[in-house]
Amino acid sequence: MSAISKKFRKLISKGMQIPIDVTLGLPRVTMIGQLHVYIENHQGILSFTPERVHLRLTDGELIVVGQNIIIKAILPEELILEGTIDEIKHV
Amino acid sequence: MSKKTWLGTVVTTVEGEGVESFINACTSQNIQFMNVERTSMTSVRAVILIEDVRKLRKIARKRGLVIRFLERDGMYVIKERSKKRFGFIIGIVAFCVALGLLSQLVWKVDIEGASPLVEQDVREWAAQEGLRIGQPQWRLAPEADIQQRVTEEVPGATWIGVEKIGTKYQFRVVEQHLAEEQEQLTPRHLIANKNGVIQQMYVENGRAVVKSNDVVQKGELLVSGLIGREGEETAIAAKGEVMAETWYQGTVEAPLQLNGIASTGETKNQYTFTWNDYSFVFWNKDAEGEYEEFHTETDQLTLPLGFVTVPLPIEKTTYEQRDTMTIEYSEEEAIEHAVSIGKNHLEQQLDNDAKIIAENILQTQTDNGKVKLSIHYQVVENIVQVAPIQQGD
Fold it and tell me: B29 in a domain, yes or no?
């Protein structure tokens, strides 16, 4: 995303009071206890093991660490992880 | 979240290098994965929709991955299974159709509140209109129309209500009660048909000749049909009621001992298969030797099927055990019995409006195991008898 486009989107978001994740395509991560992680606006899986899931985001990467992690569901822009989540890191 | 998972899912294993990028590629093509589990370093197990199988295969072939499909679930499986159990499905559908169809037939025509004659008329009318058992309801006119027409067309009923209750048509009949026709009466007197003491008189037409407490003899004039001034009387039909006390005497006998045959309540059923002249007992063959005294009854078994009754080639014979019984009465009981017998006898002979006001036992005699009573009854009854007046007398 170019710098001008980014600025423009931020402006719109502020002016029209639209959440920033919608306009900028930023990820929204929701956690339900240690059990579930909902990740919206992901850009694909980089690696996947029961202990560690590595995801690509629009800017950067997301690392989820835990035990017995499975991908409960995966859609083009949405992803649900299930298991015992210990750590979420934005890199 | 997940779309159309109920249509059918399949458990899939994917093996090879770059499983993650394979999943990404699939996701970007709108293939949905569920329950993705890592099974080893190079393999993944996931659940996908059956409709995505072809797309998935294509992508996997391009990337040189091995995919295997395991258990399937959902509508797809039911569809496949139902192909195998085609007859079963047909049965279910046929049942539903049959139930639906049968519930649209007429199963009962009930007629309420009609005398047998009118009921017969209504039933015939209904049958002729197609309103009989086994007819489809959709061919019939709506109830309101039927109601109007049946009321108009069936004589003898003032109003007939028609109501449809499920598969039953209910007719409620209100019958006409035509006023009784006035009898054409010829001039007549009323005379006594018995000896008695007048208790009460009610004269509708005519001139009363006697009054209360008069003693009248049989044949005596009670109400005269000749009215008007003496010498120029006109003859009319006298009409009225004269209640008088009359007397009856009778003898009644009652036995002190009563012998009778009665069922003990024990029964045995025997079933016989019969076809033309051939018959064969297949149930309770020894029933005949079972009781010393018995009474038998044979019925043909039938199978009622609603609108027809099919006779079965099976006969049911019921053996009822019987026993001779002796009932002994004491003298008082026998007298009581005799009195009630006598009263019954008399009541049967008398008119409906007659009343027995007193009964006196005149004499009691016991011999030969019998009680013999002589009873005197006092009765109040209508003693009127019609006597025509000869015209031109």
Answer: yes
Check whether residue B154 and residue B185 sit in a common domain. Answer: no
Give me the domain span that covers residue B191: 181-256+329-393
Q: Which domain holds residue A54?
A: 26-90
Q: pLDDT for A54-69, tens place per residue?
A: 999 888 899 999 999 9
Single pTM value for the model: 0.39
Contact call for residues B50 and B7 (beta carbons, < 8 A): yes
Report yes or no: B196 and B219 within 8 Å, Cβ to Cβ: no
Q: Is B346 among the domain residues?
A: yes
- What's the pLDDT at B183? 62
Q: Tell me which chain B residues have a C-beta less than 8 angstroms from the C-beta of A49.
A: 38
User: Over the stretch B44-103, which tens digit does the pLDDT of each residue have?
Assistant: 999 999 888 999 999 999 888 999 999 888 888 888 888 888 888 899 999 999 999 888
Residue ranges in chain A modelled with pLDDT below 50: none
| Within-domain flag for A82 | yes
Q: For chain B, what is the largest distance between any 2 Cα atoms, rounded to a whole number of angstroms?
A: 144
The answer to whether residues B234 and B334 belong to one domain is: yes
Residues B367 and B388 in one domain: yes
Nearest-neighbour CA in chain B from A69: distance (Å): 8
ipTM of the complex, rounded to two decimals: 0.77
For residue A48, the domain's CATH number is 2.60.40.2000
Q: Do B191 and B252 reside in the same domain of the chain?
A: yes
Residues of B in contact with A44 (CB under 8 A): 20-21, 23-24, 27-28
φ, ψ of residue B300 in degrees (nearest 5): -85, 130
Among A48, A49, A73, whose Cβ lies nearest the Cβ of B34?
A73
The runs of H, that is alpha helices, within chain B are: 19-28, 53-63, 75-84, 86-102, 116-128, 143-153, 331-349
